[in-house]
Design a protein that fits this description.
The chain is 23% helix and 60% strand. It is an alpha+beta fold. The chain has one domain: Dodecin subunit-like (2-Layer Sandwich).
Length: 65
Amino acid sequence: MSIARVIEISAESPESFEAAIRRGIEDAKRDIPKVEGVWIKDQQLVNDGGVSTFRVDMKFTCVQD
């Protein structure tokens, strides 16, 4: 029997949503074993004093044997 676990993370980039997603996936692959899928839950453009940051919230599904 396998057990699936869902881990939610946020990632940011000053460049684009795509860059934030790539950064989040790269970080997760280093720290989370056996990633089976990724769901992009939310995207936000954060404007703090004229500096824009692209933020994504993602859910990673991983399987434990």
